[in-house]
Write a structure and sequence with these properties.
Blueprint lengths: L3 H13 L16 H16 L1 H4 L8 E4 L11 E8 L2 E8 L5 E7 L8 E4 L5 E3 L5 E5 L4 E5 L57
Antiparallel strand pairs: 1-4, 2-3, 3-8, 4-7, 5-6, 5-8
Length: about 200
């Protein structure tokens, strides 16, 4: 089974590529209780972001990788920015299997001076000169928001680290949308338990 971070990567990679819904199925076949809990943690996280995920991505935002001399060529970092009321959510997905020592984000001028918090992480950044800069680990996804109130209270399952680590190497989401009957991002919240499934479709 994939680790929590691998499942999380697949979910947000689908979102930043235009998915309007994510469907998990076949949970009755799961034999790993820890993996089941990790899926509950992920769907709980997605549900907490529902007010943002049903909004359209803001236009003219971009993530530019500042490549160093020792960095191999790659796909880069995908960005998805959504606004709900006065709050902002920034989703970042490093699609390369190597780290990026510098990623410049642009297109956040309307939030100049606002502080963003890394959801489920310790980092804090301030929007300056239209954006901010950060580093990203291989195949990492990060979320920054103007409020930590959207973090799910569920923590069980997030620490699951065993699994098939090579799963994501070479993984790419090619479809622009994911057909989904049931838990669509538009109109219906993602549900936590009982969970019907255990896969992200392409």
């Amino acid at each position: 089974y994939p680790t929590f971070q691998e499942s999380r990567y697949m979910a947000y990679s689908a979102v930043v590529h235009g998915a309007q819904g994510i469907l998990y199925w076949g949970s009755n076949e799961l034999l790993d209780a820890a993996f089941r809990q990790s899926l509950y943690a992920l769907t709980s996280e997605l549900a907490s972001l529902h007010p943002f995920l049903i909004q359209k991505p803001l236009p003219d935002t971009r993530a530019v990788v500042v490549r160093d001399l020792f960095e191999p060529p790659g796909v880069g970092v995908r960005i998805d920015v959504r606004q709900h009321g006065d709050d902002l959510l920034v989703i970042l997905v490093n699609e390369d299997n190597h780290r990026h020592m510098g990623v410049d984000l642009h297109g956040l001028r309307s939030f100049e001076g606002r502080k963003l918090f890394e959801l489920y992480g310790p980092d804090e950044v301030t929007v300056e000169n239209d954006g901010f800069t950060l580093r990203m680990r291989p195949l990492e996804c990060r979320m920054y928001c103007t409020s930590r109130s959207v973090e799910s209270e569920r923590r069980t399952g997030r620490a699951r680290k065993d699994g098939f680590s090579p799963l994501l190497r070479g993984c790419r989401v090619r479809s622009s949308t994911l057909p989904c009957s049931g838990n669509r991002l538009r109109g219906e919240r993602f549900r936590t338990p009982p969970l019907r499934g255990a896969a992200v479709s392409q």
